[in-house]
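Hallway conversation turned thread

IA: we were arguing at lunch whether anyone had actually written out Porphobilinogen deaminase end to end. Turns out nobody had. So, for the record, here is the sequence (301 residues) and right after it the structure tokens. Reply here if something looks off.
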Amino acid sequence: MLHIGTRGSHLATTQAGHVRDDIIAAGHDAELTIVTTPGDLSQAPVERIGVGVFTSALRDALFRGEVEIAVHSFKDLPTADEPRAHIVVPAREDNREALIARDGMQLADLPQGARVGTSAPRRISQLKALRPDLDIRPLRGNIESRMGRVTSGELDAIVLAYAGLLRAGYGDRATQLFDASEFLPAPAQGALAVECRSDDAETRAVLDPLMDAATALQVSAERHVLATLEAGCTAPVAAHAFYDGGELSLRAGVFALDGSHQLVESGSVTVADTLDREAARGLGRELASRLLDAGAAELMA
């Protein structure tokens, strides 16, 4: 029996449940194991406590041998390599940002000074660039409690990752989807990182067929923007990669929190095949270097 470590939230267990189902469909026994993290017990915003408390708890359980597999939202993992972990990246879900607004409204329909919930600096900065008048409010909790603040009338709208809504079965609640090339998502948004221990050859053999090479290529480019900028996953940094017919394209940006200034760079590279991760990493580093030359460090500060 393979034990799959996950946080206990509806979204986390649903994501890990998809991985479990794929493993079972391949002929292996697997079940979810809930790992309680310090972040689950805190009422502070994620941006204050850091998403590292969630990923670290899952990795600790993995390396202690309490579980054989850990499932993360890839965007929450540190960009530094963890040599003890073997990571498999399944096909990515839609990585666009979604607006959930009262009365079916879109962003342009919201009244002057509308109360919009999000705590992510990347989202705040891009919302402010589009609508400087918005009253941005902090947002904490699971998907259900966040959506409930719109239903109750406390907020006029919130912004969430569409991937999470889809996986949790709430895709129809989105009133607007933002084009990923215009409202840039977080690096690796919509992708899962499925980990086992590097020295666990049996579990590696189970997980490796779940790998989606095109997703891994795109995510590698996006995360190398973040790594080169030496920015955390809550910094106002965004990236979106797209792979088609041997061409990998990447768009990345760094934003002033008040929306007053944006630095955005784009580029592409021809890759020999979807296993050409070095080309993807190089493209990410190139765009990050351009952003730094244009003043990204000052904006992030």
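OS: looked through it. The chain has three domains: 1-92+191-211, 97-177, 212-300.
IA: good, adding that to the notes. Confidence is low (pLDDT under 50) at residues 44-50.
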